[in-house]
């Protein structure tokens, strides 16, 4: 059960999300970066010194840090996932391609937290379904176009 301290921490995390560089990083990862193959993903993930790599690391490590707070009991996991759907979107968007490209788990702290949180598992499954529908719709639109 969430406590007032959990609520304070969620609000602090929200404040950090609003920081201009963090907003840019989140936009890049959520909306702008859409790799279609392993090479495109690895070019950004391993592209140390590039603006895209900096944005990638800023967003991914933010969500990993927040998930780690939950894993160590500093923040209620249910409150975290209720207040932050974006972490599910980022995790779901990249985990399969990342695993193919690197052989490693994407966002391992977030993956552990999802595995321990049934409601998060449901959200991941729902997000996968939504992504599949979006892909089908895009393909159908491209056929007509």
Structure report:
- With 145 residues, the protein is mainly α.
- It contains 8 helices and no strands.
- The radius of gyration is 16 Å and the shape is globular.
How far is the N terminus from the C terminus? Answer: 50 Å
User: What's the β-strand tally?
Assistant: 0
Rg over CA atoms:
16 Å
Q: What fraction, in percent, of the residue positions are helical?
A: over 70%
Strand content: under 5%
Largest sheet: none
Order of helices and strands: HHHHHHHH
Compute the number of helices.
Answer: 8
Query: What structural class do the secondary elements suggest?
Result: mainly alpha
Shape: globular
Question: Averaging pLDDT over every residue, what do you get?
Answer: 96
Unreliable residue stretches? none
Q: Gist?
A:
By secondary structure, the protein is mainly α. The relative contact order is 0.11. The chain has helices spanning 4-17, 20-32, 38-45, 51-71, 77-83, 85-102, 108-116, 118-144.
